[in-house]
Known about the structure:
The protein is α+β, with helices and mostly antiparallel strands.
Amino acid sequence: MTLDVRAGYGGSPMRDLARSRGIWVGRIGTSPSAGQVWFRWSGAGRARPGGDGRLKTTLTVPEGQHHDLVLEISDRPLRQPPVDSGDAWVATEEAWAGAVPNCDGLVAARDAAHAHTVLTGLTSASGGMVAAATTSLAERLDGTRNYDYRYAWIRDQCYAGIAMAAQGCQSQLAATVRFIADRVLADGPDLKPAYTAGGEQIPGERALRLPGHPGSSVRVGNRVLRQFQLDSLGEVLQLLAAAAGLDVLDADGPRAAEVAAIATATTPGGAPPGGAGARAAARWSALADKITADMGKAIHPTGRWKRAECDERVDAALLPSVLRDAIPAEDPRSVATVAAVAAELADDGFIYRFRHDNRPLYEADGAFLLCGFWMALTAHVRGDDVEAAHWFERNRAGAVQPAFTPRSTTCSSGSCAGISRRRSCTRPCSSALCACPAARGSVVRRTGRLPDCAVIGRGRWVSNGFASTTDRTRKGTG
């Protein structure tokens, strides 16, 4: 076995190694200003430093036995007693069991429970839910498009929170609402599309001189910092409304809703409706009517909606207008839009976001699972449950099972301890904590009809004001 803990993307190796009573300690980093990390390794008392500075040992585990190795990492000196592996295993199993609600009443219950597990692992103590646990996974083999999604996207986390509300998961919902409300109250109309897991500003994108996936460079940071996504504010309002229905909002919730509503109204340059009570409600209603009327500028000659007034193409991101009942499902424009999406953007049961150019859909981009689930919900809203089940099952099957293996993690007070248990077996076994960005999820209530299905997708922003999702999906609400 070899222990080689590093910081600075591999540039800062271990130093100040010392052993006491069979426990190794050390730190990483050159100065407090550059950031330092302390670590402690228990269960490897026979390890010795090699010429390369790594700790190395040979461990033999008798058949049927096990040996626990505990690695603690902290942003401050580790002065408390070492973690007891037995206690940690019990606490970890109890914590994971309590983190996943009972999903027996849902369609695709196993998928829903798996999604809860993955999303719990991707959620920080502050409530921020990151979209991926790693960076620079290429969208295509030998492709150049890869991004750093180790951040919490406001819109996506709202989708996840709305799904939690649909299932009645109040504890997970409360953490999501708290994170979102804090961000809205802090930034108001300057709300960023995404934040770090702790709610801080995302660093700009830069490339690292590290080997990555074939054909892809390694990138950290994200350019989304320079973008604005108006639809995030709308999803915030949807989330807060769903939380209010379950009496999950705290004192900051109503204030965050007011800030988001005013920001939505004023962002295009107008003044927010004023007044109070019925007078204010009438003004908000008048503003909604004006927005609806302005949508008439984006009607295609065939009667369907366009991506934008200046863009003739159809876009699957137009489907939520049917789902949210902004425009009734039986409205001729809605009917024509759904038909156009199915005719122009569907391929083998999957939906693509929009057509980039004259190339086949699969050559220009990947299928967007979120859009496929939107089609399922749209068919359900229109009363065609057979078609809804077709879209739902096809896209559910297309969501790659996330490779998430929770072994043991306990985090508090700026430190994190991970336990890997080595067992004697006839084949290699994993002892790593890992999470794939394809953390899918679906939540559907069993009511005799196809009910509130919920899935969300990872995405980039395009200039016309629609959120572009990809086939990396996470649980939320369509």
